[in-house]
Amino acid sequence: MATDREVLREIWEGKLPVCFELNQEEVNDLQAPEPYYLIVPRLSYFPLVTDKVRKHFVKYIHPDKLDAEIWLDYNGTPLKWHYPIGVLFDLNNSDIQLPWTITVHFDKFPEEELLHCTSRETVETHFLSCLKEADALKHRTQIVMNMQKKDHNQLWLGLQNDKFDQFWAVNRKLMEVGGEESFRYIPFRCYYKDEPCLQRLIKPLSESGCRKTLSQLLEELNMLQDGLSQLKVTTHGIEPPLDTPLQWMSEHLSYADNFLHLIVSSVG
Amino acid sequence: MSDSENKEGINDSSDIPKDADVSSENSENITIPSHSGDSTLQKKNKVDIFLKATANAPIMKRRKWTVDHDKTIAWIISFLRKYFKLDSSESLFLYVNQSFAPSPDQVVRNLYECFGTDGKLILHYCQTQAWG
């Protein structure tokens, strides 16, 4: 089970300053609205923090679009609401200046690029599904499935209301190794170049029982053609050392969905 | 979430057998036995999927299909919607491991690599949410 509680708290408290601007082409008023500033948790999802943003801008748009679903873009790239905010930031990290300026749209929903999100329930369903998938990778006997509905609610409300203790009181059960030395497999999603994210079965221990490290994960994903020194791995805005054990990473650096989200990029 | 898929289903009324990406029973791909190892399938960049009906979902005449490994869950859902000629108001859900619903933008290969058994990926489909 996760023991370095300080690390868990640091990760939980990761925040990003965001400046939301309404898409200029959608301004239907003599005066353009002021931008809207928010500090948002890295572990959260945009639909959970943008109610006020919507309310702020909705007065300035064409009345036909009052009920439209909002969507966001950074620098022309639509932002996927089903990725945690911190992942979206780290994916664009190299050229973002703070505050992170994001454009808000009510019109021209990019059907090809984004999934619809009609309510918070859509996010909840996605979040629980990710938890179940991660659980299926980690444990022989699944834990989430045997939890009560109130435990699911507690995880979800903990995330939604940014309550560390509430979330971790239940999440620690998901991070237990259940009598084994480690998880069965490490739940991770790896983002490299513009490819769809990569998921593979990777065990936290080698055949001889040694703890595998981040560099061994890269090796198993066949990413080391140009050598270790050419790659950089980012998560939560930091670059964990490549000799960090995977099991420890999974327990401490996973997002709320219980997945490690690793952004791999080439150096230089 | 399913709006875009619905739209696609309505607009594209092409017959399923003509769909070039899904190999039919009689095509050359069927010569790949389902127990063929990962290497054979990966060389061809194909994945065997096995579609199983759950609850009251309609049954498919054939359940094993071979699809390109970079196809998404949204694509498979859209394929099933066309196959069953579902109305846009009817929903369809896909589950892996009888436990979780993969994200529509998830690619089949990731699921096959992590949850495939005996050279194929089993996907359960149903018209009501089965496993929450």
Mind telling me the C-alpha Rg of chain B? 14 Å
Query: Largest sheet of chain B, described in full?
Result: 4 strands, mixed
Q: Shape of chain A, please?
A: globular
Query: How helical, in percent, are the residues of chain A?
Result: 25-40%
- Overall strand count of chain B: 4
How many H/I helical runs of chain B?
Answer: 4
Oligomer: heterodimer
Helix and strand element order of chain A: HEEHEEHEHHHEHEHE
How many distinct beta strands of chain A? 8
Instruction: Give start-end ranges of low-pLDDT stretches of chain B.
Output: 1-39
Structural class of chain A: alpha/beta
Rg value of chain A: 20 Å
Mean pLDDT of chain A: 94
- Stretches with pLDDT under 50, minimum 5 residues of chain A: none
Q: How many angstroms separate the termini of chain B? A: 15 Å
Membrane topology (chain B): Peripheral membrane protein
Subcellular location (chain B): Cytoplasm; Endomembrane system
Biased composition (Basic and acidic residues) (chain B): 1-21
Biased composition (Polar residues) (chain B): 23-40
